[in-house]
C-alpha cells in the first residue's frame, strides 16, 4: 500500500489568545461565513439604502424647489447632495441595529455559536467585542459601496465624503454597542425587538435631521433629536461632505458618539461575560 503524504496538522500552543487576538478570531469567524453567504445580506446592506436614495434623493428631491426656503434648509446645495451623507449615516445605524438584535440572540440561543466559542479559550468580553468589530468592518464595506452609488447619482461633491463614511461607521458602532448589550439580556425574543425597532429605531431615523433640518421640528420635539446618536453622526457626516462643519460643534458630536460607544462596549463585555458564564 502506497505511503500517503503526511498532512501537517496545526497543534495548539495551549496558550489563551491575547485580548486583540481573541477579538480577531471572532471577526475571522464572521468573515469566513460572510464571504460564502454575502448574498443573503445584500438586500439589507446595499439595496435598501439604494432604494432610500432613489425614493428621497432622486424622487422626492425633484419636488424640492430652489426657492429661498429650500436654499435655507439645504444650505444652497441640491437636495440630493444635502441628503446623501445623512443617508450614509442612517443606513449604517439601521444596519447596525439589525445586526445587533436577531443575530446576537441567535448566537446565544438558537445557533449557540457564542457558547461554542466560550467553550474554547475565548472570553465573553472577547466574543462581544469581536461581534462589534465585525459589525464595524461590515458597515465600512457596505458604506464604501454606497458611496460609489451616491457618486454615480451625483451626490458627491468632494473628498469630504470619506470622512462622512468614517462618521457613519462610528455612528453605527455607537448604535450597535448599545443594541447588542440589550440583546444580550433578551431571553425570549417575543416583542422586545419589535418594540425596539418601532419605538426607537424608526423614530430615530425620521427625526434625526436625515430628511429635513431638526430646526424645522416643533421646539418641544427637538431635544429628542439631540439625544439621538444618528443626529450627531448626521451632523458630522453632512458637515464633512459639504465642507460646512465647525470645530467646536463637531468635537461635541464626536465626543457624544465616542462616549456612547465606550459605554455600549463596556456593557457588551460585561453582559456577554455574564450570560456565557450562566
Commentary on this structure:
With 278 residues, the chain is mainly alpha-helical. The chain contains twelve helices and no strands. Helix 4 runs antiparallel to helix 7 (124-152), helix 8 (160-183) runs antiparallel to helix 11 and helix 8 packs parallel to helix 12 (247-277).
Question: What is shown here, in short?
Answer:
This is Transport permease protein. The protein is mostly helical.
Comma- or semicolon-separated keywords:
cell membrane, globular, 0% strand, mainly alpha, transmembrane, 278 residues, transmembrane helix
Say how many strands there are: 0
General shape: globular
How big is the Rg?
A: 21 Å
Strand content: under 5%
Largest sheet: none
The mean pLDDT is 87
- Tally of individual helices: 12
Can you tell me the residue ranges where pLDDT is under 50 for at least 5 consecutive residues?
A: none
**Helix and strand run:** HHHHHHHHHHHH
How far apart are the first and last residues' alpha carbons, in Å? 52 Å
Broad structural category: mainly alpha
Indicate the percent of residues in helices.
Answer: over 70%
Transmembrane segments: 46-64, 76-93, 113-132, 139-156, 162-183, 195-214, 251-272
InterPro entries: ABC2_TM, ABC2_TM_bact-type, ABC_2_transport, Nod_factor_ABC_transporter
Keywords: Antibiotic resistance, Cell membrane, Membrane, Transmembrane, Transmembrane helix, Transport
Subcellular location: Cell membrane; Membrane
Amino acid at each position: 500500500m502506497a505511503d500517503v503524504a503526511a498532512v501537517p496538522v496545526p497543534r495548539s500552543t495551549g496558550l489563551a489568545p491575547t485580548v486583540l487576538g481573541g477579538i480577531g478570531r471572532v471577526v475571522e469567524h464572521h468573515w469566513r461565513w460572510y464571504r460564502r453567504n454575502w448574498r443573503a445580506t445584500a438586500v439589507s446592506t446595499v439595496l435598501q439604502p439604494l432604494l432610500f436614495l432613489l425614493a428621497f434623493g432622486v424622487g422626492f428631491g425633484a419636488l424640492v424647489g430652489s426657492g429661498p426656503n429650500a436654499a435655507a434648509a439645504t444650505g444652497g446645495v441640491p437636495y440630493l447632495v444635502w441628503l446623501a451623507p445623512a443617508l450614509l449615516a442612517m443606513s449604517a445605524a439601521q444596519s447596525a441595529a439589525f445586526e445587533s438584535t436577531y443575530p446576537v440572540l441567535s448566537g446565544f440561543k438558537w445557533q449557540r455559536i457564542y457558547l461554542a466559542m466560550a467553550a474554547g479559550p475565548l472570553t465573553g468580553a472577547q466574543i462581544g467585542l469581536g461581534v462589534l468589530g465585525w459589525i464595524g468592518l461590515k458597515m465600512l464595506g457596505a458604506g464604501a459601496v454606497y458611496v460609489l452609488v451616491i457618486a454615480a447619482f451625483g451626490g458627491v461633491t468632494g473628498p469630504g465624503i470619506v470622512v462622512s463614511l468614517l462618521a457613519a461607521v462610528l455612528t453605527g458602532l455607537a448604535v450597535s454597542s448599545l443594541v447588542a448589550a440589550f440583546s444580550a439580556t433578551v431571553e425570549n425574543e417575543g416583542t422586545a425587538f419589535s418594540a425596539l425597532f418601532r419605538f426607537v429605531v424608526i423614530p430615530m431615523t425620521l427625526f434625526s435631521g436625515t430628511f429635513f433640518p431638526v430646526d424645522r421640528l416643533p421646539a418641544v420635539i427637538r431635544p429628542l433629536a439631540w439625544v439621538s446618536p444618528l443626529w450627531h453622526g448626521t451632523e458630522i457626516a453632512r458637515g464633512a461632505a459639504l465642507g460646512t462643519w465647525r470645530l467646536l460643534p463637531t468635537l461635541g458630536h464626536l465626543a457624544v458618539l465616542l462616549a456612547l460607544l465606550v459605554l455600549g462596549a463596556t456593557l457588551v463585555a460585561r453582559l456577554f461575560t455574564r450570560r456565557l458564564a450562566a
